[in-house]
Structure formats: C-alpha cells, structure tokens
C-alpha cells in the first residue's frame, strides 16, 4: 500500500488580495501562511516519508521547506516535479478575480468545468490538467509501490485531481469549496488506480 499526504501551499499575498494565482504567477507566503505551514510541519513531524514531491512554484517550495523543517526528511532531498504546478490560468493569471467573475468562461471555470474553454484566455483546460496530474501520480506510485509520500502543490490542481482519483466526473470536480491553504489530505492505494480518502482538508492542527 502507498499512502499519499497531499498538502496545499500556505496562504499567499495573492490569496489575500483575491487574485488569480495559477501556474505562471507567484507571490510570497503571508505571515499567516508561514505560521500554518509550520503548524502543519509540527503535526507531521513524526511521520516518516519515503519521498517528497513538490511543485516548482516558490510558494509550494517554501511551504514544503517549512513543513519538513522538524521532520527527519531533509528538505534538500525533496524532488521538484514540474507537472505539480497550478492550473495555467492564461491571461487571467495575476488579475483580480472580481474583474472576470461575471464572464461566461469564468462562470464555467468555477461551476461548469466540462464547459470551460481554456483557449479563450490562453489557459489550460481541466482535462489537460487532470491528464498531467494523473501521470504524476502514476509515476510516484510506480516509484513507491509501498511506502508513504508527501506531495505539496496547489488548490485547484489538488482539488480537481483528488476528486478525480475518487471517481468524481469532470462536471462535478469543482463542487464544494477549495482545499484550505496548508491543509492536509491523505489517500491510500494498493494498485495506483483505486484510491481511498482517509482524511480530507484537515486543518485541525492550526492555531486559527
């Protein structure tokens, strides 16, 4: 059995300012973001990870470093995986979300992912994001058919990927709220194809 620990990066300035934060733009963690990532690290400090995989984006890299600080897995050993980056939001990336919220494709982006036309703003489609996400999970499982791994990535990417791993159809993958910053979700699999969620969006360790 392989156990996956999925962590969303800590709160960033773009999160606070209500800006799109996709696979191109980045912004630093806030003080709260640093605090919650450190608290996630304390919560996981006694968990032994065989491998750690992280998005290349700085907000995820910093979060992973903070989470691993009290752990016996040294951050210098973590593996950066390009395909763990956030969905590419194209021309929207970095813009204030409220500027676009009533546009037809923005409505589809949030509520009708099966209808979302990413090419309209030079972005990435949900099927393409899911395809690269599944490919990453397949590779991680093949490298760790028995063990425990930590994956640090992004809100939309993780929400959609984790729902897909549970068999949720494309039209429903955006139902419910986004995973919280620095939250922990745990999945297990015996074959790399069928996954069981044992913990979802856990923030119980945070001093809110």
TrEMBL record:
GO MF terms here are: phosphatase activity
Entry GO terms, CC: cytoplasm
State the source organism's domain of life: Bacteria
Q: Which SUPFAM superfamilies match?
A: Phosphoglycerate mutase-like (SSF53254)
* Active-site residues from the entry: 9 (tele-phosphohistidine intermediate), 86 (proton donor/acceptor)
Q: Which InterPro entries match?
A: His_Pase_superF_clade-1 (IPR013078), His_PPase_superfam (IPR029033), PGM_Phosphatase (IPR050275)
Residue positions binding substrate: 8-15, 59
What name goes with this protein?
A: Phosphoglycerate mutase
Provide the species name.
Lactobacillus selangorensis
